[in-house]
Design goal:
The protein has 437 residues and is of the alpha/beta class. It contains twelve helices and twelve strands. Helix 6 (158-172) packs antiparallel against helix 7 (179-202). The structure holds 1,4-dihydronicotinamide adenine dinucleotide. It catalyses: 2 nitric oxide + NADH + 2 O2 = 2 nitrate + NAD(+) + H(+); 2 nitric oxide + NADPH + 2 O2 = 2 nitrate + NADP(+) + H(+).
Length: 437
């Protein structure tokens, strides 16, 4: 067992959710290994996935999904919806069970485990909800494997992750958990984690690169622009994000999108806002300094554009979410035939529009690019549209024939995607990265 004590936000034993009841004490990790799932976890690389549940979901025959995979995915989604409101407590229990099964995993987490455990939990459950759709599953697995490798997870630890996941779910799902549900979860985990385990086992390239902070410019008390020179260029595409770890906050990885298209010298520019309660973003804005060594996880993310796409493009970016949009526009400016593109860049106040000048310069030079700035609180400025981003976007045109990229806070992405869907934009035209809150 790791000597490092768990933080007060973690559970202390199997019967007492200490995160809720005893927040002030430092606690020791769970020492009881949870009972294994009634259906054994079998990762397809080594065995075959379990067969269909012996007792399929009750309900009208028409609602029973056609395949065992669809049944498992649906059952996972339904149970997850029930437990998600308790995600923090669930994540603490999951972490404590995982550390009791695989003590070496503790060293991969910071002292306060809730947030990274929540991330790991979601990164396992999300692909489990798509085991009936091989393309969607593959699309989830590839970036997650990179993130798991950057975290330091090893292939042989996936089984412990599965047992801890089922153990935590068994505890928190209450009346929504029964033998068929457990079977469905085990099946979905086996189908989702199998390819992850195999990919982690097969990976030969280094999971993490390193770079040096060569510039730190503070734009305001909560905003900064940082430049990082990687030791060797990180092979990313415009619009992708990297997970990064900074020396001030070891083992607390965060996604960060470069604000420039890939450059020959590999230099990376990041725009960071210190969010309330954000340990890492605050440290990046207030304490990062030139000379710091950052660790850079592999690139990932769904924001990107096909040069051969035929639809016009709409990009909507909120605050520092403008960074990948600037990178994409810079990249498109190098294409022989850029796609007609409209960018809405929003901020609460004008100072939030950190990439506005550079986008304006691009728009002045390139007729394929149109730009609108939106400010919630900028009453005297006639150059910006008033209101929130979704309102301004929907008011300004019919986007149903466009490819749409969204970049910003989860709340802004949710609100903008909903407004566009209601306005007739098909779901499969809309792309964003699912950064959880
Ligand atoms: N690849 C990506 O998707 C990236 C996402 N981000 C995320 O973008 C966010 C940026 O945060 P800030 O700079 O503080 O900007 P912010 O959250 O203050 O957002 C500014 C803009 O978003 C709109 N907005 C925010 N919440 C909204 C809501 N609930 N409904 C409608 N509109 C809303 C505002 O009207 C404003 O135009 C962070 O959460 C960061 O993690 C940052 C970089 C890249």
């Amino acid at each position: 067992m790791s000597a490092e004590p768990l933080s007060p936000e973690e559970p202390g034993d199997r019967d007492r959710p200490a995160a809720v009841q005893r927040p002030a004490r430092r606690l020791t990790p769970v020492r009881t290994v949870p009972p294994p799932p009634t259906t054994p976890i079998v990762l397809p690389g080594r065995h075959t996935a379990p067969e269909q549940a012996p007792d399929p979901a009750p309900g009208p025959a028409a609602e029973v999904p056609a395949t065992p995979e669809a049944h498992a995915a649906r059952r996972v989604r339904e149970t997850w919806d029930e437990v998600e409101p308790q995600i923090d407590e669930l994540a603490c229990w999951f972490a404590a069970l995982l550390f009791s099964l695989a003590p070496e995993v503790r060293a991969l987490f910071p002292a306060r485990v809730t947030e990274p455990a929540r991330r790991l939990l979601r990164s396992i459950v999300l692909p489990m909800t798509t085991v009936d759709r091989p393309d969607a599953l593959r699309a989830h697995v590839e970036p997650l494997v990179r993130e798991h490798r950057a975290l330091g997870l090893r292939a042989e630890q996936y089984e412990a992750i599965g047992v801890a996941l089922i153990g935590a779910m068994r505890r928190f799902a209450g009346e929504h958990w029964d033998a068929p549900t457990e079977h469905a979860w085990v099946r979905a985990f086996s189908l989702a984690a199998g390819p992850m385990e195999q990919a982690v086992r097969a990976a030969a390239d280094p999971a993490v690169a390193e770079g040096t902070v060569v510039g730190h410019r503070r734009l305001s008390w909560d905003l900064a622009v940082l430049h990082v020179a990687p030791d060797v260029p990180v092979p990313h595409r415009a619009g992708q994000y990297l997970t990064v770890e900074i020396p001030q906050r070891p083992r607390m990885w965060r996604p960060l999108s470069p604000a420039t298209a890939p450059r020959p010298d590999g230099l990376l520019e990041f725009h960071v806002r210190a969010v309330e309660g954000g340990w890492v973003s605050r440290a990046m804005v207030a304490h990062a300094a030139t000379g710091d060594r950052w660790r850079l996880g592999p690139p990932a993310g769904r924001l990107g554009l096909d040069p051969h796409g035929t639809r016009d493009v709409l990009m909507v970016a909120g605050g520092t979410g403008g960074a990948p949009v600037l990178a994409l526009c810079e990249d498109m400016a190098r294409w022989p035939r850029p796609r007609p593109c409209t960018v809405f860049l929003g901020g609460r106040v004008p100072e939030d529009l950190t990439v506005l000048d550079r986008l304006q310069a691009l728009a002045a030079e390139h007729p394929w690019l149109a730009l609108a700035a939106v400010c919630e609180d900028d009453p005297l400025n006639e150059r910006t549209l008033p209101g929130t981003l979704p309102d301004a976007v929907v008011r300004s045109g019919d986007w149903s024939g466009h490819d749409v990229l969204l970049s910003g806070s989860p709340a802004m992405i949710r609100a903008t995607a909903s407004a566009l869907l209601v306005d007739g934009v098909p779901l499969d035209h809309i792309r964003y990265d699912p950064f959880a809150e």
